[in-house]
Amino acid sequence: MAWKSVFSIFSNDLAIDLGTANTLVFARGKGIIVREPSIVAVNTATNRVEAVGTDAKEMLGRTPGNIVAIRPMKDGVIADFEVTEKMLDHFIKKAHGRSLFVRPRIVISVPSGITQVEKRAVQDSALRAGASEVFIIEQAMAAAIGSGLPITEPTGNMIVDIGGGTTDVAVISLAGIVYSRSVRTASNEMDEALIQYLKRKYNLLIGERTAEQIKIEIGSAHPLDEPLTMEVKGRDLVEGVPKTLMLSDEEVREALSEVVAAIVETVRVALERTPPELSADIMDKGIIITGGGSLLRNLDRRLSEETGLPISYAEDPLASVALGTGAMLTDMDLLRKISIT
User: What is the pTM of this model?
Assistant: First the structure.
């Protein structure tokens, strides 16, 4: 037993938040050591990986014909097995300083609505990328742990995790998920809605990086106190030449309205399906929102207005899933209780 505990002190265990937009890797005893976009640039002529993560994101929309920037994760699940494996392999090696002999135990978080086949795909990819053992936990549970919610107590805690590909809503009590729902409407849908809106209204074509920039700089879910504008560059679809226009926060809100309404509706449905005893707890404590998508300006105001409940942010919305998944590396008992098989 002593040998085992000494071994676990020098353990190379990793926790991975395998997100649609970003992948975060948490190493035991070190914290988050990798935080990069889930993008891989592949050379189609040689089938070689040219770049992964931040370097690959720089290439988005700017690659020559033989290099394609691929997002292997779609809506929180693996869309491209081979590329996901290469991406995981790259991140695991990066976390361990390129060591080839390390076979870590890995905890990976996945969206709540994941199917058995999708779960198997995540497990297989991690094992092939060099893991010795793989545990899978639900993103909403990981986000709740990472946000510091008292999940093991007999009180209701509600968490809304708005990621890149999915929005996960869960009510947690006694280390179990009482209700959970995952909808494939989140940050990436917002970017897509902006692209379509500008195409429809101004015949202007923009790329996904520009759409993301607009959302971050002037996007909002509820009217702002101070109006914002932004200069947007794209291609005129009629003339076929570059064009610039000024976009207001009001227009961006209009473009995002359907996506935001879908997220609000998911939260309302969760509240309707929550047992009355736990509803009373949620009324007292309110709802915690986390994930990159929760950073959309005034989303807390909009949710508060629609639900009548207090809304608060997790301490580090972009990292709470990774922090919660990482916390499981040192709490094997809780991990065995909450991991899904």
Answer: 0.88
